[in-house]
Amino acid sequence: GQQLNQSPQSMFIQEGEDVSMNCTSSSIFNTWLWYKQDPGEGPVLLIALYKAGELTSNGRLTAQFGITRKDSFLNISASIPSDVGIYFCAGRYPFQVAQKLVFGQGTRLTINP
Amino acid sequence: GAVVSQHPSRVICKSGTSVKIECRSLDFQATTMFWYRQFPKQSLMLMATSNEGSKATYEQGVEKDKFLINHASLTLSTLTVTSAHPEDSSFYICSARVGQIYEQYFGPGTRLTVT
User: Fold this and answer.
1) Do A42 and B97 lie within an 8 Å CB cutoff?
2) Which residues of B touch A (CB under 8 A)?
3) Reduced to 3 DSSP states, what percent helix, strand and coil does chain A have, rounded to the nearest 5?
4) Residue A106's closest chain B neighbor by CA?
């Protein structure tokens, strides 16, 4: 089945540092989505990407759709305490009638005081 | 916009009983909704895809008679866990697709505990 590898699995950083995480796929995707999940809550959509090479920002967050269509990264600049949570990438591969998303394993972000 | 609600947020039930979870799209019509299950510290596992007015499509390994899904209207899908057992305890999350675009918006989740 479709595999999505997300790394790193966890990050421990100081407040104010920049963060970078990425996802790679074994197959081509035509959509990449990045979500953040807080404990006990559902995931919240951060950024959606639809074209290879696309670079999109949402405040301090920036995500890119890799040119090979098999990867995507998410950067967070100048991290703040409310950035703590689990970040998931999700992708959809072409010709997928059911519109299902494949999810990465998540990156758990912890910010040291 | 694109708000999805779930009810209840938490439910505790006894083994052998059935539990219904509602998922509503509040400010848009969702032709397709999805039901996920999430275990602690794990990613989301798709259980089924629900299309308004038709039968749900279940993922491999998900028992359709155990997890009954009904998508009766463009704003409501329900998941019923029948004859629940402790191993059904989990975090259940629904999501809805907005129109023809591929973004999915998630509900806040339902924590089910079966005693």
Assistant:
1) no
2) 4, 6, 32, 34, 42-44, 46, 49, 57, 91, 93, 95, 97, 101-109, 111
3) 5, 55, 45
4) B43
How close B107 gets to chain A, by Cα (Å)?
6
Q: What is the pLDDT of residues A53-106, one digit of tens each?
A: 999 999 999 999 999 999 999 999 999 999 999 999 999 877 766 678 899 999
How many other CB atoms are found less than 10 A from the CB of residue A76? 23
User: What confidence tens digit (pLDDT) does each residue in A13-56 have?
Assistant: 999 999 999 999 988 999 999 999 999 999 999 999 999 999 99
**Touching check for A39 and chain B: CB below 8 Å?**
no
How far is the C-alpha of A6 from the C-alpha of A25, rounded, in Å? 9
CA end-to-end span of chain B, whole Å? 37
CA angle centred on B114, ends B37 and B36, rounded to 5°: 10
Q: Beta partners for A110?
A: A12
Average pLDDT over chain A, rounded to whole?
Answer: 93
